[in-house]
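Q: I'm a student working through a structural biology exercise. My instructor gave each of us a protein and asked us to get a predicted structure, then write a short paragraph describing it. Mine is Acyl-CoA N-acyltransferase. I'm not confident about reading structure output yet, so if you can add a plain explanation after the tokens, that would really help. Here is the sequence I was given:
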Amino acid sequence: MRLEIRKATAEDEQSVSRICLLTADAGTSSEALHDFGELPGLVYAVPYLKLPTTWAFVLEEGVSKEVVGYIVGSSDTRAYERYAAEHWWPPLTAKYTPEGSVKPADIQYAERLRNMHTAPDANIAFSPAHMHINILEKHQKQGWGRKMIATAVESLIGEGLQGFWLGVDPRNDSAKNFYKRIGFQRIVGADENQFGLRFDEFRKTNQILFKCV
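A: Happy to help. First, here is the predicted structure for Acyl-CoA N-acyltransferase. I'll explain a few features afterward.
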């Protein structure tokens, strides 16, 4: 099966949202946890196709054009947070309320929309940029995660950035091991689930990937 990495477009919204739902429970599907299955994507994926300071790439099956993975992020996290607080979260808080939800996961997301977490200062000190990545299970462990990260790294180097970071679900040991394996390290001063990647080090250890990006 031939896969390709390309820049995401607004037309990828449904696919990206679906992938987020299918990986939102510590890397596994959270479909059964939600009546409003769009909520994980509206928080962790879809905004990166729409808001300022964001970037996004998708992993696409070459023949069917099915999107099977994504890597998204912001090159300026604080600016992203400010814009989202003013323009993105308010309409969602009006639409999704704890009182209008039944399942605990939907209630948690509805409450989160009203008190959206912001990045720790230690993360911002490491880099202003952050990212999220998810790939459907059948396409994992084939090197695509590393290739998608290389694509994002090359793009952000062009913007003058030197690194980015992400937060990992504390239950997702598989993800933590993957990030550590490719060069992510714990961020000093942040909790144990915050990891950062220095682009220069990643490029040194993955030179063959950058010849292909």
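A: Here are two points you could use in your paragraph. Residues 3-210 form a domain with the Aminopeptidase fold (CATH 3.40.630.30). DSSP finds nine helices and seven strands in the chain. It's a good idea to check both against the output above yourself.
Q: Great, thank you!
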